[in-house]
Description:
Layout: E1 4-5, H1 8-21, E2 35-39, E3 43-48, E4 54-62, H2 68-88, E5 93-95, H3 101-109
Parallel strand pairs: 4-5
Antiparallel strand pairs: 1-2, 2-3, 3-4
Amino acid sequence: MIAxxxxxTDHYAQLASWYxxxxxxxxxxxxxxxxxxxxxxxxxxxxxxxxxDLAFMDGLIANPIAxxxxxxxxxxxxxxxxxxxxxxxxxxxxxxxxxxxxVANRTVKNGGAxxxxxxxxxxxxx
Length: 126
């Protein structure tokens, strides 16, 4: 299984189709960061950079019609690529938010830790 750097021209339509299939709005193009990875036909994820030593992993999505085994393998691959890229860029911590137990369990399986507190996602649009 091969992962590639996410390219809007080559990969956005596929990414958007996964959101649409799940009855979710695809992320607007201008909201995607410049760093992301995709395993074609399987999954994708993005790294949002800050001006501190903290980065965010977000936009983790899998093709809902891909085989579970392929999704599991692909999600591990791109998750590790995102973490490796963050480390290479000098970030000391990567944070991700998810309401899905499967994502939390994958985090722990791959050496991450769950925060003990309950959080609220707060957004202000301009």
